[in-house]
Amino acid sequence: MPEPVHTPPAQSALPDHLELAGNRLLEVKNLCKYFPIRKGFFKKTVGQVKSVDAVNFYIDEGETLGLVGESGCGKTTTSRCILRALQPSDGHILFRNSSGQTLDIASLPREQLQPLRRDMQMIFQDPFASLNPRMNLLDLVGEPLLVNGVSNRRERTERVADLL
Known about the structure:
Elements: E1 24-39, E2 44-60, H1 75-82, E3 90-96, E4 102-104, H2 127-130, H3 137-147, H4 153-163
Antiparallel strand pairs: 1-2, 1-3, 3-4
């Protein structure tokens, strides 16, 4: 996997201007992901590919956002940066965790990301590859709850009903 050209410095605390407002759950500010272009025997970096450049959006509580666009436009790279499967080159990814604390995912150390994995997941763009046509809607939407420890079917059913 290519190394990022620029990695933002780690931040111990968020400045006031980076706190999430109101019922905001996620805010992406100036998200960038650049991949190096390397050439020669020593693989010297001679340029960069701007896969994601200055992306901004937010999601408030109760909202759903879909990223759509042509193949290769950066949808998956944006999603992978938000989940920190890729390290962003620049920008902030502000997320309000289940305890109400605002975190900048872009600057969190890897070991602090694991507890957030239950709160953030990617749904792949090819529904035939990710959704089992033999499962009903309750089971499809409730499966992540089951995987993350909500084993009581009644509780899963209630939470899925609230979502739908």
